[in-house]
Amino acid sequence: MIVGRVIEIWRYPVKSMGGGELRECRVGAQGIPGDRGWALRDDEAREVRGAKKFPALLQCRARYLEEPNGAASPPAEITLPDGTRLATDDPTVSRRLSELCGTRVTLHPIRPPDDLEHYRRRLPGDPAKLERALREVFGRLPEEPLPDLSVFPPEILEFTSPPGTYFDAYPIHVISTAWLDDLARSNPGARFDRRRFRPNFLIKPEPKRTGKVEQEWTGREVRIGSVRVKIEMPVVRCSMVAQPQGDLPKDPSVLRTVVNASDQNVGVYASVVAPGTVKIGDPVEIE
Q1: What SS3 string covers the chain?
Q2: What is the pLDDT of residues 138-161, one digit of tens each?
Q3: For residue 161, which of 33, 42, 79, 209 sits 20 to 30 Å off, Cα-Cα?
């Protein structure tokens, strides 16, 4: 049964930076080749970090200079907020990004999955400090609930991403226009632009439906183009969605609406069951 069509495909070469649209893509076990192929590691904190800690990264853009065709991350070109362009293999890139972030960071390609220290999460042991840290990362006010961390894959509590990747949880992220429209009805004064939520696939439901359409697919297999994915969980949203990027202003009301009118979630994560290809206009089908 066809439940929608792919209207946009996005890939993000550097974690937390703006990415680019594709007309079509291959999808393997680890998602779109080259997606989140690079990330920053805070040298002092000894932890891979993105725009939750360094929101200025959302003002940068990145694109590949050559199409990724394997597990290794090829060089990408980064455009800084001032328009300066430099490659990920430029010897000055980490220094320039450190200046942007206000602390010393190093840009890394994806490391092997057995390099566990590279991916390890450094959470405070004190419960009070841990709650403060979580509220900062997720952008939750004192009166708002923290997300239920038990819904995440178990390794996410120990590592900043599944080792061998820079994904927050799963390799594929899907959002429908229906969910974004639902948020806009709850807060007409805000811009619920899909760029704030950084999906891989933006889906327009068929027939026309309203509400959190893709959340209904959780636990089921879905075919997107020739790719089969399993919808694993809704995407819990953090402070990033309220930050400025491109022509989108900083808007805390975006996050407040997500927390209070959308159960803290927008879109869904998926794992890849069978690889294939996806192109604009492809159907989305429930298996």
Answers
A1: CEEEEEEEEEECCECCCECEEECEEEEECCECCCCCCEEEEECCCCEEECCCCCHHHHHCEEEECCCCCCCCCCCEEEECCCCCEEECCCCCHHHHHHHHHCCCEEEEECCCCCCHHHHECCCCCCHHHHHHHHHHHHCCCCCCCCCCHHHCCHHHHCECCCCCCCCCCCCEEEEEHHHHHHHHHHCCCCCCCHHHCCCCEEEEECCCCCCCHHHHHCCCEEEECCEEEEEEEEEECCHHHHCCECCECCCHHHHHHHHHHCCCEEEEEEEEEECEEEECCCEEEEC
A2: 999 999 999 999 999 999 989 999
A3: 79
